[in-house]
């Protein structure tokens, strides 16, 4: 796209704010007249094609992984014509009915818009269920808001993200696909021109367990908590939580944000990086829109069409291309090199808790060497033996995979306070993960980092806990940190 127009692309600097409906190319193999930017027609892929595109679904090709016990993994793939694709591979229990899966995929595959990362195909082969979409090379909204490196997202771009997202929801609603499952900042992706697009994967129903929200309950629409059903109004509520993300640069629970808004303290809500870059009127209007979306009563929330109208009037710097607003050179796909993971890093990425257990057992306590434990003689005589006994009992339970007992014993050791051991925190972290307690596991992994700031294992276990919480991008960042620390350690 960029400085040229085709019949499939929107020359948006002439009319940047109009949503564009794309027509699929007539040639699914080459994207229509050999243009790889054109959106190919929706079609069925063979399992062999997708295996070839991903080098056999190797871990090097994983771009995100939803952290559950049986995760749905997204891979980057490359077709023979050089087109990059995103492939979502569901766990084997997600879609037991192949006909239902194919019908859903075809309905979503009928959509074509430059506000979507469009679905271009599917594969249903035996137990395998896979979706194929356009690949978006410039990361997620969560990355650019919460984990930015060179510069924070500016005000004009945040307004554009809000508008484009509202336009995506309005388009989907006009095509009879108004329900979007678990709308959050990880579902907004940036294309080769750094324009934000909504992932099509959230338009698919997941028939495995009926869950539509994997995020923290603090961000879940109140009516979903009551009924377990997603409605159009639920999607608008989630849109409101994303507007809070855009305003604050953080993932703030709606209840806390609404308290600030009711107290006329909305400036406390704003990202400090934005200070001096927006008018009070614009800030007040965006806060007003967010609070309308977050109304407790679903019927009091606006619809997508009215959101588009309201956001259209707020747009700034409409003639500036998105890649300039984002500070990303055009055509520069911000794709990280595949991480060279250690066995522990690989196990944490795959959420293979059994393999993590084996590795932690093998490592033992060798990484505790050099940890300062200043103890008086009195503490040695009065408390040390009890602490060592609790640790010994915890180790025995950990070895025997009695993780409840391990948690109890390690807790007694930690609470005693006579010794500090990052390994004990790591072992209790895994024990929490084995008991499906990821929040507690994350706390222990972070405590291990506090005790031993340069310990790669602490970062790897943080990644595992974050994946379990559905915080995939944060998990990838922790994996990267652990890998870098391990590389540094191996140099010395």
UniProtKB/TrEMBL annotation:
Residues 60-326 form the Protein kinase domain. Keywords: ATP-binding, Brassinosteroid signaling pathway, Cell membrane, Kinase, Lipoprotein, Membrane, Myristate, Nucleotide-binding, Serine/threonine-protein kinase, Transferase. GO terms for molecular function: ATP binding; protein serine/threonine kinase activity. The keyword tRNA processing does not apply. SUPFAM superfamilies: Protein kinase-like (PK-like), TPR-like. It catalyses: L-threonyl-[protein] + ATP = O-phospho-L-threonyl-[protein] + ADP + H(+); L-seryl-[protein] + ATP = O-phospho-L-seryl-[protein] + ADP + H(+). Its EC number is 2.7.11.1. It is found in: Cell membrane. This is non-specific serine/threonine protein kinase. The lineage of its organism: Eukaryota, Viridiplantae, Streptophyta, Embryophyta, Tracheophyta.
């Amino acid at each position: 796209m960029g400085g040229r127009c085709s019949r499939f692309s929107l020359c948006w600097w002439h009319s940047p704010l109009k949503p564009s409906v794309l027509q699929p190319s007539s040639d699914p193999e080459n994207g229509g007249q050999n243009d790889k930017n054109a959106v190919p027609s929706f079609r069925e892929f063979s399992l062999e094609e997708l295996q070839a595109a991903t080098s056999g679904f190797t871990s090097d090709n994983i771009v995100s992984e939803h952290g559950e016990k049986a995760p749905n993994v997204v891979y980057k793939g490359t077709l023979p014509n050089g087109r990059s694709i995103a492939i979502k591979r569901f766990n084997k229990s997600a879609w037991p009915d192949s006909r239902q899966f194919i019908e859903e995929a075809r309905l979503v595959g009928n959509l074509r818009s430059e506000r979507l990362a469009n679905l271009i195909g599917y594969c249903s082969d035996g137990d395998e269920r896979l979706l194929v979409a356009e690949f978006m090379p410039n990361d997620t909204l969560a990355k650019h808001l919460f984990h930015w490196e060179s510069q924070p997202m500016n005000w004009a771009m945040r307004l554009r993200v809000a508008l484009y997202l509202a336009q995506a929801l309005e388009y989907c609603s006009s095509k009879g696909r108004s329900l979007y499952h678990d709308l959050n900042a990880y579902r907004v992706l940036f294309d080769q021109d750094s324009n934000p697009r909504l992932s099509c994967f959230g338009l698919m129903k997941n028939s495995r367990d009926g869950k539509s929200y994997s995020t923290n309950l603090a961000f879940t629409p109140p009516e979903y908590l009551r009924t377990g059903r997603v409605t159009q109004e639920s999607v608008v509520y989630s849109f409101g939580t994303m507007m809070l993300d855009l305003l604050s640069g953080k993932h703030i629970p709606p209840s806390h944000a609404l308290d600030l808004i009711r107290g006329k303290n909305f400036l406390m809500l704003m990202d400090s990086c934005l200070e001096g870059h927006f008018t009070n009127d614009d800030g007040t209007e965006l806060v007003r829109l967010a609070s309308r979306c977050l109304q407790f009563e679903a019927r009091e929330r606006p619809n997508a069409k009215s959101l588009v109208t309201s956001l259209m009037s707020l747009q700034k710097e409409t003639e500036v291309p998105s890649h300039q607003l984002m500070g990303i050179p055009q055509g520069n796909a911000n794709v990280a090199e595949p991480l060279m993971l250690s066995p522990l890093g690989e196990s944490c990425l795959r959420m293979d808790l059994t393999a993590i257990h084996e590795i932690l057992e093998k490592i033992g306590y060798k990484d505790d060497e050099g940890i300062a434990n200043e103890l008086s003689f009195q503490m040695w005589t009065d408390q040390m033996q009890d602490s060592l006994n609790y640790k010994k009992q915890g180790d025995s339970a950990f070895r025997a995979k009695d993780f409840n007992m391990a948690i109890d014993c390690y807790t007694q050791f930690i609470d005693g306070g006579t010794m500090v051991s990052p390994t004990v925190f790591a072992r209790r972290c895994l024990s929490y993960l084995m008991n499906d307690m990821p929040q507690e596991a994350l706390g222990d992994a972070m405590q291990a980092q506090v005790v031993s700031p340069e310990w790669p294992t602490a970062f790897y276990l943080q990644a595992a806990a974050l994946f379990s919480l559905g915080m995939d991008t944060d998990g990838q960042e922790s994996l990267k940190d652990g890998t870098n620390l391990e590389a540094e350690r191996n140099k010395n």
